[in-house]
Give the backbone structure.
Amino acid sequence: MITIYGRESSSSVQLVMWAVNELGLAHERLDYGHGHASTKTGEYLAMNPMGRVPVLVDGPVCMFESAAILRYLGAAYGGGAFWPSDPAVRGPLDTWAEWAKNTFTEAVLEIFVYDVRLPPDSRDPSILERAARRLEPLARMLADRIGGGPWIAGEAFTFADIACGHILHRYFTLDWDRPDLPALFDYYQRLQGRPAYRRHAMISYESLRGSY
Ligand SMILES: N[C@@H](CCC(=O)N[C@@H](CS)C(=O)NCC(=O)O)C(=O)O
C-alpha cells in the first residue's frame, strides 16, 4: 500500500495523486501541510527534511520531490507506454517533464501567488504583468510541442503528460490575460476526459485565498 502525505490543494500533491490513480495503484492520502497536520515535526522531517508536501512511502521506499516521485512510479509501475523502457524514447519525453515542473509550473505558480495567495491589498499589478510576460512564451512552447497531440508523445499517454498537464487547471482558471493557444486549450479539454485528472488535478484552490 502506497501512502501519500499531503493536502489535496497542493499542485505537487495533485501531480502525485493523478499519477497514482492513473496507474490504478492501491494507496491512501493523509492530510499534511498548510492547514492540516504539521510537516515540521521530527517524524515528518525525517521523511522530508524540507518540511514540504508531498512525501510518498511505498514499503521501504520513502521519497519527496513530486517530479522524482513521478519517475519512481513510472519506473516501478508504469510499464508499457506510460514509462518507455527505451532511453532514446523516454529521454526526450523527460526533457518536457523536467521543463514542465521546473520552468512552466514555476511560471504558472508566480501568477497563482499573485492572484490567489496574496491578499488583494498587497498586490502590485506590475508583478502580474511581469509574470504574464514570463509565462506567455512558455505556454506557446508547450502548445507548439503538443500540436495536434493528442498527447506529448503523440498517440501514447505518458508520465510527461502528468508533468505538463497537472498545472493546466490553474493555468486556465487563474485571472490573467491568457494568450489564445487553441492547441493548449484542446489538450486541457482532452485531459478532462481522464477521470483521474478530473478528480485529482482539478481541485479548488479557494481554501488558499489570501493565505500569504
Ligand atoms: N519541489 C517540491 C515542491 C514542494 C512544495 O513546495 N510543496 C508546497 C505545496 S505545493 C508545500 O509543501 N507548501 C507548504 C505546506 O503545504 O505546508 C515538489 O515538487 O515536491
